Amino acid sequence: MRTYLVTGGAGFIGSNFIHYMLNKYGKEIRIINVDKLTYAGNLENLRDVEDLDNYSFVRADICDSAAIEEIFRKNDIDVVVHFAAESHVDRSIRNPEVFVKTNVLGTLVMLNNAKASWELSDGTFKEGKRFLHVSTDEVYGSLEEDGGYFYETTPYAPHSPYSASKASSDMLVKSYMDTYKFPANITNCSNNYGPYQFPEKLIPLIINNALNGKKLPVYGDGKNVRDWLYVMDHAKAIDMVINKGRLFETYNVGGHNEKQNIEIINIILDTLQEMLPDGDPRKAHINKDLITYVEDRKGHDRRYAIAPDKIKSEIGWEPETMFKEGIKLTIKWYFEHEDWMKNVTSGDYVNYYAEMYKNK
Ligand code: NAD
Ligand code: TDX
């Protein structure tokens, strides 16, 4: 029975990954989820698995080396899947420090504890151990509107404090692989969307605002391009890299699903109209008049686009859910989880929204 230590498993991608893995492998695996439960961590995301014998939760900060060491001491961890991070670009522009702490120092703590637990006296590592570092396409910087893709060989050129902190964490993982032959992989994935995404990110924010008849803030000219991937396809990619990826390699993950932000917003508005039942009062206010162009994000990257050739040819990964279908699944999930949205948008979110969008 393989034991997975998942960091940040109470967040958006981490909780989807845990669902994916427990669904796929059942009792063949054991998952320990370590999460600090910041504003982005929510145990409601894992209600349906919390009573399983092969799932457990530890509340801890990944920067707390003693707490992480204890987890490694008490458990024979086979695989670390490292999601825990501060993940929102706009927050990093306001408050970079916590991004460096969690994303850089926290990753170092995870690496050091995994290394100490897995290293043998001759400096090699126990068989079958692997550290998968979950990273982002944003480390590669920004592409021109009219061409080019991010390959694994594209030089790093991060712009925001968020992407700079993720780039630093990737460099640390690379340095451990190069220096110690530490058994790891890095995945650099494009923008994810799907169930359980916190409504500070574009897609859930637009869905929630539209349903509530609130303005839909579009940064700049709305023509920035992101490459969208349904979150379960990301979970599948991580699982496949763990099982089939060559150690020490980086794999880019993305599905050739490039869209301008304004296109995304229009698709959401049309899909909401299509999916809401006739007679639902919200149908009356969901329209393009809600779209509001606001001040641009500082240093706003123009375009991201992943070339997934390597993961496809070496590992056989391909996305299964195209955007048209994925956005319907996502909207359906938000329709069915109104309480989840109410809970996460009460309290601190009200202040966050007021502060972040006050001049917008
Ligand atoms: P998220 O913000 O939804 O979740 C982050 C989780 O990490 C939360 O549960 C939070 O409580 C936890 N966490 C934060 N600081 C912690 C700390 N110090 N100690 C322990 N736990 C802590 O993020 P997400 O969107 O699920 O992203 C997960 C990972 O995937 C991140 O590393 C991110 O950089 C990467 N990524 C995200 C995307 C995307 O589109 N969301 C795309 C590519 C890569
Ligand atoms: O209110 C908004 N209006 C708007 O126009 C918000 C929140 C965003 N945007 C724009 C900015 C981006 O061009 O939409 C695009 C997507 O924004 P986010 O959802 O904030 O994502 P992004 O900045 O692209 O970063 C995401 O993808 C890569 C994740 O947040 C990162 O964690 C991941 O690494």
Question: What does this entry look like structurally?
Answer:
It is a single chain. The protein is of the alpha/beta class and 360 residues long. It has a domain of 238 residues: NAD(P)-binding Rossmann-like Domain (Rossmann fold, 3-Layer(aba) Sandwich). Helices cover 41% and strands 16% of the residues. Strands 3-2-1-4-5-6-11 form a 7-stranded parallel sheet, sandwiched between helices. It has a two-stranded parallel ribbon with strand order 7-10. Helix 1 links the parallel strand 1 and strand 2. Helix 6 packs across helix 8. The chain is globular and about 70 Å long. The site of nicotinamide-adenine-dinucleotide has 29 residues, from helix 1, helix 4 and strand 5.
- In terms of DSSP E residues, the strand content is 15-25%
Name the ligand types: nicotinamide-adenine-dinucleotide, thymidine-5'-diphospho-beta-D-xylose
Number of strands: 13
CATH fold label of the domain at 2-192 and 231-255 and 299-320:
Rossmann fold
**C-alpha termini separation:** 52 Å
Q: List low-pLDDT spans.
A: none
CATH H level, superfamily name of the domain at 2-192 and 231-255 and 299-320: NAD(P)-binding Rossmann-like Domain
Q: Please give the order of strands in the largest beta sheet.
A: 3-2-1-4-5-6-11
Specify the structural class: alpha/beta
Q: Share of helix among residues?
A: 40-55%
CATH class of the domain at 2-192 and 231-255 and 299-320: Alpha Beta
In sequence order, what are the helices and strands, one letter per element? EHEEHEHHEHEEHEEEHEEHEHHHH
What is the overall silhouette?
A: globular
Corresponding CATH architecture of the domain at 2-192 and 231-255 and 299-320: 3-Layer(aba) Sandwich
User: Cα-atom Rg, whole angstroms?
Assistant: 20 Å
Could you tell me the mean pLDDT? 97
Biggest sheet details: 7 strands, parallel
Task: Count every helix, treating DSSP H or I runs of 4 or more residues as helices.
Answer: 12
